[in-house]
Structure prediction request, 919 residues.
Amino acid sequence: MMPLQALAVTETTPGGALLVLGIVMTAVALVGLIGLGGRGARAIVIAALLFQLYVSVRVALMVAGTQSPLAYVVGGFHPPLGITLRADGISALMMVVSAAIFLGAAAFAWKDFAQPKGKPESRASLIFWTALLAMASALNLLFTSSDLFNLYVGIELLTFAAIPVAAIKGGADTLRAALRYLLFAVFGSMLYLFGIVLLYGAYGTLDISGLAAQLQPNAATLTAAGFVTVGLLAKTALFPFHLWLPPAHAGAPAAGSAVLSALVVKGSLFLLMRLWFDTFPTLREPADMQLLALFGALAVIVGSITALRQQRLKLLVAYSTVAQIGYMFFVFTLAPKDAGALIAETAWTGAWTQVVAHAFAKAGMFLAAGLAAEVLGHDRIRDLGGLSSRAPLVVLAFALSGLSLMGLPPSGGFNAKFMLLVAALAEGHWAWGAVIIAGGMLAGAYVFGVLARMMAEPAAGASLKAVGHGRQWIALGLSAVAVLMGLLPLEPIAFLAIGRAL
Amino acid sequence: MSPVLLFWLAGSGLIGLSVYGLIVNPHPLCKLLALNLLGSGVFLLFGVIARRGASAGLGGDPVPQALVITGIVVAFSATAIAVALLLRLHSEAGEASIDEEEDGQP
Amino acid sequence: METAFDIVLALLLLGVGGWSVIARNMMTAVIVFIAYGLLLSLAWVRLHAIDVSLTEAAIGSGATGLLMVIAAHKVAGDTKRVVQLSRGFHALAAVFAALVAIGIAALAFVLPGEPVSLAAPVLARLPESGLGNPVAGVLFVFRSFDTLLEKVVLLLALTGVWALARDEDWGGVPGLRLFPERHSVLGLLARTLPPIGFVFAIYMTWAGADVPGGAFQGGTVLAAMWILVMVAGVRKAPRVSSPLLRLAIVTGPVVFLLIGFLGFLTPGAFLAYPEGFAKPLIVAMEIALTLSIAVILGLLIAGPPKGEDAP
Prediction:
């Protein structure tokens, strides 16, 4: 028997318990929601999400204050026997972003998923609120767990929460999209699990840092990395695995679409970045990483062109998610293991700025698209006319989100794409630079196409309904965050490197 | 031939069979069955790794065995959701199909 | 002799598994798949994993199989859209699948020659918990966080199934097909088997701390008894909005979470057990979980609510 290599032991740090609370308290709320049969459902959800925001901000402040990651050894059992949680800069960032967007989505859905009069719960209210809590819990698990199998359970939890949200409206098309989503996701998890078997068989541990310490670039490890990656790509909907995403995201209720597109796809993406930069950094061969970037580039081009050709607003917004995910894959080649530190840091910051800016912009845009559909009674792009006079805030929210998606200054999207572009040009990747610019122009085409329709005169005979101001302000607020991120300096952000050896 | 190698080969074969099934069977229930077969093949490989690690008087490494138990439950949960989706789709659309061309304009 | 048995078993697994993939009739495919699951639990015995074998038989083959039988029965008419693929396509798929299988099989020879194992560390720390079954030790002590999350996954699967009810049916009883003939063999079974199953389930949960078995296996036996009673029409399925039902569903997870939080107080870590109390706490948790798992499994198989007077 091979002696288990002595690993760098992680100990629980002060504040480490916050990581447990960030995952478990939403699960407690979920159990309560089911047990209480809907009584006080919305109050429980808002309380749990506010607590999650508090926990996330505390974690971020502690990570920033100590300039080192938080860690927690669950049950006091160290790896390889037990499971640890660990939050570095990117974990803390994503925890805060996710809590904020969940709160926005919950507030937006407050009226839509109210309990029916005289009854404690309806089908939609129970399902939507439990799924929202489960997604919040699962995402924090994905952001902080250091154990590959624990992460598998987390990623399944996320999928099983996302499917009911995608299926909640119940028409045949929606159900078909949700079923396709589920089959894809299960296939992806099986590939991921197969990779895990190989890694455990080769190293006897599933701990991310433990694996990184003893990793050998042999056939078993490379195969494992390949299967885990393909499995996660299927779940992230990177081209050519993107076909399940648009109908599933477009078929959900607006608040559901917002969290699916803004956050849920980022769960498996986060894991992918975590694995390639923290577990398998020594395996990052330029050729393989170029392949990931190539699929990213194809996603940008194909996703944007398909978005342009859509006739329905929600499908357009969903295809734009396919495109925007593509940009994030440039980081794999632009932050190579032997690049100059400044270039690598620039690409790294650019990629995370893109993740966060897209999250806020897309959440705002889906909420705006939902409100537009409510005002008009449909979401045919051709007949969006009259929206700007009836609900100007909705149009403004859509425009601000669009600004960030196109990558025009000032916006988070501009910062992200500019930094990725600088890194691409500095490393001589002209092709990726060209794709970044072309993607921005295509995004401009579909955003301005929609805006022009929204400004047009209402179609003859159209009856426009009024929607509440509260929900318009929520959409606008989320979009505004994406734009305000443009005020950040155009340089690497030190916080994103805390706890990492980039 | 040792059982370890034998069941690894069996697991590989099962994964191959399920891949074939996933490609050629269009019906979602068949795809679901193939995915379950795929899962059982992957789990069998976990079992082989566990058996390989038999030591300290145990017939197998208990950690991968425990992981398989959790994995079987998670896979079952997926099957339950998929079956419910499939049956609802069947009752809405008259048949359960996930083919693309059916995504018509509502 | 044993090698011959293993070879036959492996070939049977491939043969029966392959049959379930190529069977033309969906019901045949599903029934063959159940048989495959039983063979697979035999393979788990041969791999010295009795706990997994029991879980595979109960969940992988039994519960999954039952779900798929129900589904295959209802969609039996879906034939008109079966795409006729060309022979060339089939051959191409077969070649691709064979390459995948060969590639994975080849990996058996590239894994490091020295097998890795956590058996020794598990055994070294198992006595602290007072448990005798090392697999239970991993599930409820070392990796209990996974097990806790797995319970949340089950709850979510249940709401995921309930999500597919029609709005007007919400709050009603699950739409399991009933066979309410009072004097049928089914009815007789439904009246005589449950007490026996109940005792057996309790034994399995209780013994799971020290020998193979545990909450999941015990819960499955209970669920099977409950489904039998519902299908035979001896007792009606409860309404999904029933407070008692909801209580049964969340009892296990609530006890699990409470014990997890107790760990914060003493000995000071989430999901750690106070010294000397590990075994009683785990047994208490397992009993609560058995109940919840049984109810959840039964409801998952019974399907979404279908309104009160659905046939």
